[in-house]
Write a structure and sequence with these properties.
5-stranded antiparallel sheet, globular, alpha+beta, 9 helices, 16% strand
C-alpha cells in the first residue's frame, strides 16, 4: 500500500487551509486526542440519540488542538513502522511480520487522512461505551463496537461529529473511508507519475477477489 500517496493528499489538504508546519519540541498532551476527550468528557458535549448513535459537540479551538495532537501521535506510529522496514536488519525479519508492518503503516495513514476529511473511526469496548454515556445526560445504554463519525459544520464556532455504530471492524471502516476520499475525480488532479499508484490503491480497496486480509491472519 503506497503510503507516500496518502502523505501527498494530506499535505495538499492542509495547504488548502493555509496550514504551515511548525516543529513540535515536546509531544502534545495524549489526553488531547479525540477518543480520550470523549472518554473523559473534558470540554466536550455528548448527546446520546439511541443505543447505536451519539453526537459530539466541541468548540473549534478545542477541535484544532485535538486534530493536531491526534496527527502527531499517528505520525509517530507511521514513522515507527517505517523505521522498522528501513532498518538494515530487515532481512532477518520474517516476511509475515514485514507485511503486517507495512499494512499498519498504511492503516494509520488512512485513519489520519480520514480525520482531515472529517471522517472518524472509533472503536469502543463496553466499558468505554459506558464512560461515553456517563459523560452525557442520558441513561440510554450505548452498544460497544465500531463507530463511524462524520463532521457537520452547522454550528457557529463549534464542530459537531455524529457517530453511528457500524457492523464492520475498524480496519474495514478505514478502507471504506479511503474509497470515499480517493474518488475517481481526484485522479484527474494527480501527476501522471502518481496515477499508477492511485489506480493500484483503488484496485486494492475495491477488489472483491483480493480483499485486504486482517493483520492477524497475515501474521499467523
Amino acid at each position: 500500500m503506497p503510503v507516500t500517496l496518502f502523505k501527498d493528499v494530506i499535505s495538499d489538504r492542509l495547504s488548502e487551509f493555509g496550514f504551515t508546519r511548525d516543529p513540535i519540541e515536546t509531544p502534545p498532551d495524549p489526553g488531547n486526542v479525540l477518543k480520550e476527550r470523549i472518554l473523559s468528557g473534558d470540554k466536550v458535549e455528548i448527546d446520546i440519540i439511541n443505543d447505536e448513535r451519539f453526537i459530539l459537540t466541541i468548540s473549534e479551538s478545542q477541535y484544532s488542538r485535538i486534530l493536531s495532537s491526534s496527527y502527531w501521535y499517528s505520525m509517530q506510529k507511521v514513522r515507527e513502522q517505517r523505521r522498522l522496514i528501513d532498518t538494515h536488519n530487515v532481512r532477518s525479519l520474517p516476511l509475515a511480520w514485514l507485511l503486517v508492518t507495512a499494512y499498519y503503516s498504511a492503516f494509520y495513514s488512512a485513519v489520519e487522512l480520514s480525520r482531515l476529511f472529517g471522517l472518524y473511526n472509533l472503536n469502543l469496548t463496553q466499558d468505554q461505551s459506558s464512560s461515553v454515556v456517563g459523560n452525557s445526560n442520558s441513561s440510554i445504554v450505548l452498544k460497544k463496537g465500531t463507530f463511524s463519525g462524520a463532521i457537520e459544520y452547522e454550528l457557529k464556532d463549534a464542530v459537531r461529529i455524529i457517530f453511528s455504530r457500524q457492523d464492520v471492524k475498524p480496519h474495514e471502516l478505514a478502507w471504506k473511508n479511503m474509497r470515499e476520499i480517493l474518488g475517481v475525480n481526484n485522479r484527474n488532479n494527480l501527476l501522471v507519475s502518481k496515477k499508477q499508484k492511485f489506480d493500484l490503491i483503488n484496485e486494492l480497496l475495491n477488489s472483491q477477489k483480493r480483499r485486504l486480509k486482517m493483520p492477524n491472519n497475515v501474521r499467523n
